[in-house]
Specification:
An 8-stranded mixed sheet has the order 3-2-1-4-5-6-18-19, with helices on both faces. It has a 7-stranded mixed sheet with strand order 11-10-9-12-13-15-14, with helices on both faces. The protein folds into 2 domains: 164 residues, NAD(P)-binding Rossmann-like Domain (Rossmann fold, 3-Layer(aba) Sandwich); 183 residues, NAD(P)-binding Rossmann-like Domain (Rossmann fold), CATH 3.40.50.720. Helix 7 links the parallel strand 9 and strand 10. The chain is an alpha/beta fold. The protein is built from 13 helices and 19 strands. It is 33% helix and 18% strand.
C-alpha cells in the first residue's frame, strides 16, 4: 500500500495545510495509507481528531514520517536535511522555486527523489484543476484589497449622506493576471472606481468586463508566454510604463501591484518619487515585496511609509484566509494525485512524457529531467 505523508509546514507565518481532512478521506478511499503530522491543520481550524476520523494516522514523529513516505505532499520546499531522510524513489510534491534553488534540486537528484514543482504545472485546460498558483493568486487578489481598505483613511464606495456626497475611492491595479483580476473585481464590489494596466493589451477586454477602466500606455510590441504570463519588458519599455502610469498612481487612493516574473526578480514599477506624489493616507500594496518588490521602498513581510503613504508588503497573502486557501491547495494536490493514481495497483504511475508531468517533474531517478531547469543550470 502506498504511504502518503503530510508533514507540518515549519514557517511560523504559515497557517495553511497541504491536505484537509476531506481530501485525506478521499485519499484513503482511493486505497492509500495516509500519515499526517500532529497539528497539521491547527492553523486553519482542523483538529487531529478530524484527520483520524478521515482514516488517516496521526504521528508526532516527523523524521519517521519522512523516512517511511512513498509520497510527500506539502506546501513549501523541504530542507536539505529533510531530503536526506527520504527514501530513494520517493515522490515529493510541493512548491520548489527551482530557478533559484539549484542546491535543493541537486539534493533531490542525488537522493533519487522524484520531485514535482507546483509552480511548474502548465497552464492548460487539463491542468487547470491542479493549478495551485492560480487558486492561491485569486485569494491573494481579494486579500490585498481588503488589507488596503483597512489601512485607507476613507471609505471605498460612493455614499450619499445628509452632509453631502462622498466620492468613491480610486483604485489602480497594475497587472491583470489572476491576482489582478480578482483585486479589480473585489474593489469594484466594494464600490471603488477602478482603473487597471497590463502590458498585455489582450487582457483589456477582461478588465473592462469587470467594470474597470483600462489605462492605455504605448509600449510598442509586447507579448505573453505560452502559459499566459507577461513577457519581461526591455529597460526602455519599463521606463515608458513607469512614466505612463505615474499620473494615475498620483491621483489614486489605493495602488495594487501584482507584477511578478517567474524565476526572476520582479520589475520596479513605482519609484519613490511617484509614491511621494500620492496623497498622505493613501495605500500601496506590493504583491511582489518578498521577491524584490514592484515598489521602491517596500519592505518584505512588513509595512513601510513614505510621505504619509503606507506600503504593505506583508506577503503570505492567501495564507491570511487560511481555511479557504487550504481547501483550494488541498484540492489542487488531490486532483494531481488522482490524475495519475492507478486504482488497481493502488499507487501513482507517472509517465514523464505526459504533457503535464513533462513540465512539472524536476528530478527523477537521479537526474534533472526538466528541460527548462536543465537549460537554466547549464
Amino acid at each position: 500500500m502506498t504511504l502518503i505523508a503530510i508533514p507540518n509546514e515549519t514557517s511560523n507565518r504559515e497557517q495553511r495545510t497541504a491536505i484537509t481532512p476531506d481530501n485525506a478521506d478521499r485519499l484513503v478511499r482511493s486505497g492509500a495509507e495516509v500519515l499526517v503530522e500532529a497539528g497539521l491543520g491547527s492553523g486553519c481550524g482542523f483538529s487531529d481528531q478530524q484527520y483520524r476520523e478521515s482514516g488517516a494516522r496521526v504521528t508526532d514523529a516527523r523524521h519517521t514520517l519522512l523516512e517511511q513516505a512513498d509520497v510527500v505532499l506539502r506546501i513549501h520546499k523541504p530542507t536539505v536535511g529533510e531530503i536526506a531522510l527520504l527514501q530513494h524513489g520517493a515522490l515529493h510534491i510541493s512548491y520548489l522555486d527551482p530557478f533559484n534553488e539549484r542546491g535543493l534540486v541537486e539534493a533531490l537528484k542525488d537522493q533519487q527523489v522524484t520531485a514535482i514543482s507546483m509552480e511548474m504545472l502548465p497552464r492548460t485546460t487539463r491542468a487547470q484543476k491542479m493549478d495551485a498558483l492560480s487558486s492561491q493568486a485569486s485569494l491573494a487578489g481579494y486579500v490585498m484589497v481588503i488589507q488596503a481598505a483597512n489601512r485607507l483613511n476613507r471609505i471605498l464606495p460612493m455614499m450619499m449622506t445628509p452632509s453631502g456626497t462622498i466620492k468613491p475611492a480610486r483604485v489602480f491595479v497594475i497587472g491583470a493576471g489572476v491576482a489582478g483580476l480578482q483585486a479589480i473585481a473585489t474593489a469594484k464590489r466594494l464600490g471603488a472606481r477602478v482603473t487597471a494596466f497590463d502590458t498585455r493589451t489582450v487582457v483589456a477586454e477582461q478588465v473592462e468586463s469587470l467594470g474597470a477602466g483600462f489605462l492605455k500606455i504605448d509600449l510598442g510590441a509586447t507579448s505573453q508566454t505560452g502559459d499566459g504570463y507577461a513577457q519581461q519588458l526591455t529597460a526602455e519599455q519599463l521606463a515608458k510604463q513607469q512614466q505612463g502610469q505615474a499620473d494615475e498612481i498620483a491621483k489614486s487612493d489605493i495602488v495594487i501591484t501584482t507584477a511578478q516574473v517567474f524565476g526572476r526578480k520582479p520589475p520596479l514599477l513605482v519609484t519613490r518619487d511617484v509614491v511621494r506624489r500620492m496623497r498622505p493616507g493613501s495605500v500601496i500594496v506590493d504583491m511582489a515585496a518578498e521577491t524584490g518588490g514592484n515598489v521602491e521602498g517596500s519592505v518584505a513581510g512588513g509595512l513601510a511609509e513614505i510621505g504619509g503613504v503606507t506600503i504593505i508588503g506583508s506577503g503570505s497573502w492567501s495564507g491570511q484566509v487560511s481555511r479557504d486557501a487550504s481547501d483550494m491547495y488541498s484540492n489542487n494536490l488531490f486532483n494531481l494525485v488522482h490524475e495519475y493514481w492507478d486504482a488497481e495497483q493502488k499507487k501513482l504511475v507517472l509517465d514523464l512524457n505526459d504533457d503535464i508531468l513533462s513540465g512539472c517533474v524536476i528530478t527523477h531517478a537521479g537526474e534533472i529531467v526538466n528541460e527548462t531547469i536543465r537549460k537554466q543550470y547549464a
